[in-house]
Design goal:
Layout lengths: L17 E4 L6 E4 L2 H10 L7 H15 L4 H15 L3 E3 L3
Antiparallel strand pairs: 1-2, 1-3
Length: 93
Amino acid sequence: MPRLGLVDWRRSDDFAPLVLVMSGEEENRLVRSLGEVAKALVVGWPTDDGKEYVAAVKACLDAIRGDIPANTARAALIRAAEEAGIPVVAAVH
């Protein structure tokens, strides 16, 4: 697969937003970009050891580097949320 090139990880144009319904201080986290995916996974995630969690972290880094599309990292985040029991709500774009 050809490399897409380094992307602006703060840009939200090519990322369909979603809301992670989390407990604690981060009750509802709006995720609109790869940067927000990274922050959710590193700062607010309830665990750091699930198979899907590790895959989502890798996918996020790969998307930031431009190796995979942002929507692939978004799908990985959704799978990690399911694994962790975090409800995901699609936000209106």
